[in-house]
Design goal:
mainly alpha
Length: 323
């Protein structure tokens, strides 16, 4: 086809050819999506209901949970639908929407992870200035900037990608719509170069964020090692290690997916890596953050026990969490 506007649909990558494996993939995706919804939903509820968690650290964690839910809801439902109904198609409009929302949530997530790194840096390296640098208004502005950055980035990439004429067929080598795979179908060299320029700018911003992560954590670890008490060092490490683990998982899978040498590239490897940063990472993030976080564990325990107690005493009433 010579014009992208005349292309009614795209063909997504089939996860399996056998019907039994397709149904297995459906149930796996269903389990992952339910786990992600439950875990992120619990974090959202705990942070919103427990006033002890009304701090900058947990405010940004709440926003991060929203981006994780957005990533899961963008990619997984269509994959489940295709596996259940033995289908690989997605409409042109649906593909454009998927590209926009995935780019939106991924860009916003990276911005939020950068802000959370700054939060940990100020909390440990400049504790006396924490209330000044991370007041409620400053936190709201930073969160709004993260979401606005994601929206602007997604709008630019989506508008430019879907303005390109596509003449290399309509088969995408991915289980969801992603910009690099759509660009392979383009026959416009000028538009292709324009989008590559946008991708390079985005890559430079990501690399700048990566440098900021490294610099911040070098300063953080130096400050933590100067803490005289072992208990203080342990508490400081426990607040930083979950964030560091999430950042490492996010950046490593994203970099490997798009910067790996062609010699080691294969459809199965590409699929596994894409699943890591689009599905597995958003599902694991709440588990990583709650694993070593006693405050969050206490809030979740209070939330769950409060819900069960209220349900037993008055099944028709809403769940209430005592403070």
């Amino acid at each position: 086809m010579s014009n992208s506007s005349s292309m009614p649909q795209f063909l997504l990558l089939a996860l399996a050819d056998r019907r039994e494996l397709q149904l297995l993939h459906f149930w796996l995706f269903l389990a992952i999506s339910l786990a992600a919804l439950l875990a992120n939903g619990l974090i959202l509820s705990a942070v919103a209901c427990d006033h002890h968690l009304h701090t900058p650290r947990y405010f940004f964690l709440l926003n991060l949970s929203l981006t994780d839910l957005g990533c899961i809801c963008t990619t997984v439902p269509k994959a489940m639908h295709n596996s259940l109904w033995n289908n690989t198609t997605i409409t042109y409009t649906g593909c454009a929407a998927q590209v926009f929302f995935f780019a939106f949530f991924m860009s916003a997530e990276f911005s939020l992870l950068t802000i959370m790194c700054y939060d940990r840096y100020v909390a440990i390296c400049k504790p006396l200035h924490y209330g000044t640098l991370l007041g409620s208004r400053a936190c709201a502005h930073m969160a709004a900037a993260a979401w606005a950055t994601g929206f602007l980035s997604a709008m630019l990439h989506t508008a430019n990608t879907f303005s390109l004429p596509l003449c290399q067929g309509n088969a995408l080598g991915q289980f969801f719509c992603e910009i690099p795979h759509i660009l392979k179908l383009s026959c416009s060299h000028s538009g292709y170069r324009r989008e590559l320029g946008l991708i390079r700018v985005t890559a430079c911003l990501i690399f700048g964020g990566f440098v900021f992560f490294v610099f911040s954590y070098v300063q953080i670890f130096r400050a933590v090692l100067r803490i005289p008490s072992q208990q203080g060092r342990h508490k400081a490490f426990s607040t930083c290690l979950p964030h560091l683990a999430v950042v490492s998982l996010f950046i490593s899978t994203l970099f490997f997916a798009h910067l790996k040498p062609p010699s080691i590239s294969s459809p199965s490897l590409d699929l596994i890596v894409s699943l890591m940063y689009s599905v597995v990472s958003p599902t694991l993030n709440p588990l990583i953050y709650s694993l070593r976080n006693q405050e969050l564990k206490d809030a979740l325990r209070k939330l769950i026990t409060g819900c069960f107690s209220e349900a037993i005493n008055s099944p028709s009433s809403a769940c209430y969490v005592p403070h």
